[in-house]
């Protein structure tokens, strides 16, 4: 029997208009009524999913959220931290220098300052809008080397970001977990961090076995948790490598793919 379900947001739980279908809401609620823990696993900060947590009634003392691609796992109600694996200001300085050389925009999430950028740009505005948070323009040279940085992102037009990724030194991939979550977002996390690690941290906290976990995803930053789960479910609209890693391919995010798989594997419909 499955006891933990971790669901990616964009391209998975959410339809293209950023809403959750009524069928999906009902399936999630029915699973929770069977004592299955259902969590949102996202690259966003918790503020970026608060309205969906409210919509799904996930602000009880039994609810958790995986944010920043698993770098931070916490309770939703009181924000108690279950697990945290972060970067530092030193990493920020290193990647800022690299972004300057590659001529791509950069921003980051500081534990104390929130969304920070040396120069506001189109896709930092997108990030702020998606998550309903403020942008803080800061000279990164003023950030101390030991500042806690949860996530760093290179953000730019796909035709700029794509060639820049090709030019990234090999050592970057050795130092960090690097995931392209959208065509215009490239994310850098602590090498030990990915959504799979986040799901594993929560599963161990709850005393749930790996084979009792279901994960849903569509993009590169979902790959680790798809591989980790007892049942990794890819959306019909998922990247090819996610489909290849999955145990099961469900319908698309536009066609209640999450609901259909929950009904099949948990609700026996």
Automatic annotation (TrEMBL):
* Keyword annotations of the record: Hydrolase
**Which InterPro entries would you find in this protein's record?**
Cof (IPR000150), HAD-like_sf (IPR036412), HAD-SF_hydro_IIB (IPR006379), HAD_sf (IPR023214)
Q: What is its EC number?
A: 3.1.3.23
Q: Which PROSITE patterns match?
A: COF_2 (PS01229)
According to its UniProt record, this protein's enzyme class is hydrolase
A GO molecular-function annotation: sugar-phosphatase activity
Query: Is Hydrolase among the key words of this record?
Result: yes
- Gene3D superfamilies under this entry? 3.30.1240.10, HAD superfamily/HAD-like (3.40.50.1000)
The name this protein goes by in its record: Sugar-phosphatase
Q: Which CDD domains match?
A: HAD_Pase (cd07516)
